[in-house]
Amino acid sequence: MTENSTVFGLRHQARCLAPVTSSTEKSQFLAGTVGVKDNAIYLLEYDDEDMTIMPTMYNHPEEIWDIVSCPTDENLLFTSHSPATLWRKPAVEAREDSNQHHDLTRLVTLENEGIKNKQIISIDSNKIYLSSLNDSSSAQTSLTIDVSCTFTTNADSPSLRQLQNAVWNPHKLELVTVGDCSLSGWDLRSGKNSFNRSEAHKSTIRAVDYNTNKPYHVATGGDDAKVHIWDVRQLKEPILNVNDNSHSHWIWSVAFNSLQDQLLLTSSSDTLVNLHNVVSVSAASYLDSSSEDEDGQSDEYGRSTGKPTDGLICTYDQHEDSVYKVAWSPADTWTFASISYAGRVVISQVPTNEKFKILGV
Q1: Which family does it belong to (predicted)?
Q2: Position 213 in a domain
Q3: Which of 39, 83, 291, 310 suits 102 as a labelling partner, its CA being 20 to 30 A distant?
């Protein structure tokens, strides 16, 4: 699907993408490159009226393996390289020369990455570190958790026995991690394991996201090309297996829409971005037995053309390499971005007919 999408090419290969979470008026995303030299952070501002992307580039000393924006100050961002650094962007007019590079101001250097308000979570292969920013130039580690007890001891396991990803629980002080074949929760007050599912996937789990509208609901994606949604209170089986055949290779990213949580994005090494409807396990209140049209009409994916139902909404195929990250815009519920290893960023929108179905118009 190519309609309602805009493509922007970075100058180098890339693996990381993040929304500017404090920008609620304009859709803005941060992307970082992994070139041999001359790496840069791109601030990409999207204009949904004329569907254009305006870039601003910032010099970065090393390859950027992850990036995250401060939720309260859009001029602050963390990058994970070697090690990790908190930076401040200079005041730059968005419509200056797009080829001009700007310098960042280094504020704090850490061993890893991650930020939420003044608390910072960083991870390595088997540990979680909780730190606090004391001022603009220092950070103090207050808690270290060893998570290796959740990894398999089977030497023949097809999974990588190390942490792959983590996400904050937006409902309480807890971190949810994926690594090896395990999905785990960690209480950040006591440092204890709050839940664990040791064989959540058949091989390495690389992607995780938490539904901000639905406590206890977590999505995971793995090297088995599967996407599951879990209720962490009852982990015997997933509460939903998301379109089992929609991807054919490793899942790199999953992302719930923070407002319309029946919308779930997934991306994979198969070069595809898929938009799913998972309304049956969402906070939406309009799923009932009358959700089918009386005339039984359906769209090209076999889904009802009336009220939303579970299923694949559409596939976005503008990438030609592994799609490492998908992210929703905090400024526009219906806008999202994706990035592939070739350095291609695609900003897309939810199809209009699906938007109208969700809004009931």
Answers
A1: Belongs to the WD repeat EIPR1 family.
A2: yes
A3: 83
Question: Are residues 155 and 53 part of one domain?
Answer: no
Whether residue 221 lies inside any domain: the answer is yes
Label residue 214 exposed, middle or buried (CB < 10 Å: 0-12, 13-18, 19+).
Answer: middle
C-alpha 313/C-alpha 320 separation (Å) is 21
CATH, residue 309: 2.40.10.480
Q: What is the side-by-side strand order in the sheet with 14-19?
A: 14-19, 27-33, 40-47, 52-59, 101-102
Does 46 map to a domain?
yes
pLDDT in tens, 160-206: 889 999 999 999 999 999 999 999 999 999 999 999 999 999 999 99
Structural domain harbouring 215: 149-243+275-315
Confidence of residue 290 (pLDDT cuts 50, 70, 90): very low
The helix/strand/coil state of 90 is coil
Tally of residues, the chain: 361
Give the residue carrying structure tokens 């785990």.
Answer: 184
Closest alpha carbon to 102 in 162, 170, 55, 168: 55
Q: Which residue has the tokens 């026995």?
A: 161
Question: What whole-number distance in Å separates Cα of residue 256 and Cα of residue 258?
Answer: 6
Instruction: Look up the pTM and report it.
Output: 0.88
DSSP 108-139: EEESS---BTTEEEEE-SSEEEEEEE-SSS-E
Give the max Cα distance, the chain.
64
